[in-house]
Amino acid sequence: MESCKEVWDEFFKRYYWEQILGLANQYPDTKSLWIEFGNLERFDMELARELLDFPDGVIRHATESLRGLDLPADTEITEAHVRIEHLPELTPIRDIRSTNINKLIAVTGLIRKATEVRPKVTNAAFKCARCGDITYLKQEEYVFDEPFECGNDACGRKGPFKLMPGESDFIDFQKIRIQDSPDEVRPGEQPQTLDASVVEDITGQVSPGDRVVIVGILRSYQRVTQQGKSTAFDLILETVSIEAEEKGFEEIEVTKEDEQKIKELSTDPDIYTKLIGSVAPSIYGYSEVKEAMTLQLFGGLPVANPDGLKIRGDIHVLLVGDPGVAKSQCLRYSRRLSPRGVFTSGKGSSAAGLTATAVKDNEFGGGRWTLEAGALVLADMGLACVDELDKMEVGDRSAMHEAMEQQTVTINKAGIHTTLKARCSVLGAANPKYGRFDKYDPVGKQINLPPTLLSRFDLIFIIRDEPNTAQDTAVSAHIFNTHIAGELALRRKYVKNSGITEEQVTEAMSTIKPVFDVEFLRKYIAYARRTSYPLIQPEARKMLNDFYLSLRKLGEDPDTPLPVTARQLEALIRCAQASARTRLSSQTTIEDARRVIRIVTVSLNQVIRDPQTGNLDSDLINTGMGKSQRDRLRIILEAVRSLQGGNGNSVPEDLLTQTLEKEGLKKEYILDAIAKLKTAGDLIEVSNNRFRVV
Question: Does the global pTM surpass 0.85?
Fold first, then answer.
């Protein structure tokens, strides 16, 4: 055996003597010495291998050596721990097998649940009720053990015994549950989970939603059912060290060859077009939508102000469209490109499933309340794709407000008050309320989303399914080409002597093949987000500022609506930064500004242009009602007041409609406004189709 106290003494003095002196100065506030596995390999390869295969004995020797070192000034570190980190291999949870039991492994995943930190007894003191003698019993297993008989030879009775907490030894204990990262789970596969026990000074350092690497010893314990002990065993990871991963895009490994290729491509004049062509190439058209999805993947720069307030850099995009226009396909493709992509459907998601919740779990938490992370928390530092937003319950949908703007999720339930991180972009999709989109109605009214939520999206695109001979012909040809390519590939694979060559399949696939495959594009995006932090050039800043001010100026007249708000300016800046990142630029240029102004103009024209007046009106999104609608409501209220006279008589609907039609209002607008005034409580229906102002 390579491991012994003397060998570890030499290792510590050669590699970690300064760190040990620092630990001694900070003891007992700090109790852990963190050991790089690579240093151990350089010192003794056989000792490193022995640590992986027989961790119990090796870590015991290391701990005894650390606690027994001769330190200056008579300092003792009798409760110090050795923490091993950065093992050479990471074991996915789904790949854990029985051969890993009692071995030292490193597991990566995200925290799904976490209990509170609570004391756990390690050496229990029991007092004999008959003779009063105290018996000490170490608690090794996960089930509490009591002494079989009194330790006093003169007594020797088999109880009863009383636990003496004041005489017992306790340590801090926490239980966490980790699961495979969503982007690593194969289609149709359920994420695997693993419970881990955390003790002493490394408890309470992580929260649900955090990505972690846990180094620990895999233990097994027997399942006990109502029928007795089972032959099936459960697994738990006895944590040696735990490390939270803050940067989501650091998870993707970019080799030197990849880095060289990325830098070469970034100078290509057509790199922006090629990136867009790599986003959902099997879906025809939607150039502005794909541009927005590309910018969203690269993202803007988060800003931390001196006063502590933060401005998000993530870009939120909403797709609103008729059924069958491939919105869900766009979401699923975008999720594949993000290293921390999470896909969820509004129809099957509750508020807790989207954000986070506190749950009472008898099996996992022993009946205590535990925190459980939802989709937006799990997508921290990544992308959350939320389909069918319009199908969500009103209460569930409101949970997204804080996560989208503040990028946090606050939990106040069952005495638990905490804030979880949800630093992710949101790509949403919604259908019109009545099946198909009506270009004469405001967006908010048709997709049944509150204005407070709609206003948080930086870019909103309307995708209409309108007959157009040229467009339909191109779409039809594209769909047929896609199917033909798939048919050729399947026939070549499964039919013997099909006569179909690889060249034929390759040629057929060329029309739908992305410029960059998914894996390389993920690396390109990750590298750009790691290394590119562009500054806005004065010319680009002036162009964006002039565009914003020109829009604001349209609303200076009291009779015209407010075109845009400051949120649109922030969206312009974020998108311009993302555009510069696509070519790994250190500066946001005037070309980026032009590109973003074009995309934002398309979005604004689709979403906040009042169908009645043709003016841009941000209130259509921010309040759900444009200025022309408010004016119409005011006209109708004045008409009712005028017709009811001083006596407050009720006004028939027919008379009100005839009067307003003479003033140029259409009947459908009048009826719609009456319904709004009734809902708001400004108009009372006294009897059938007779109204009076409140």
Answer: no
